[in-house]
């Protein structure tokens, strides 16, 4: 049951990120890399959380930062898959 709760939270966070990515894709059609900005930001946040958990945490903070890093990594994968799907859609429209 806790695993389903974690997956549900990742999906709930991933939906607004996906919508934001689609809006960025619609606004900036000529430049293909703009739609990957949320993926890059989530990657940086995930790396930051892992570094913070390993080197700069006290007590149970490291566990919390590691869980946040896992959630951010899941949302980053959703964002990356969305970007790839948008690239495929754009390629087939041409």
Protein architecture, described:
The protein is an all-alpha fold. It has a domain at 32-87. Helix content is 83%, strand content 0%. The chain has 3 helices and no strands. The protein has helices at residues 2-27, 37-55, 61-93. It starts with a helix and ends with a helix. The model has no long low-confidence stretch (mean pLDDT 91).
Mean pLDDT: 91
Helix content: over 70%
How many extended strands?
A: 0
Structural class: mainly alpha
Query: What general form does the structure show?
Result: elongated
Strand content: under 5%
The Cα radius of gyration reads: 16 Å
Unreliable parts: none
Distance from first to last alpha carbon: 45 Å
Q: In sequence order, what are the helices and strands, one letter per element?
A: HHH
Question: What does the main sheet amount to?
Answer: none
Tally of alpha and pi helices: 3
Give the SSE layout:
Elements: H1 2-27, H2 37-55, H3 61-93
Helix pairs in contact: 1-3, 2-3
Task: Give a concise summary.
The chain has 94 residues and is mainly alpha-helical. The chain has 3 helices and no strands.
Q: Which keywords apply here?
A:
94 residues, mainly alpha, elongated
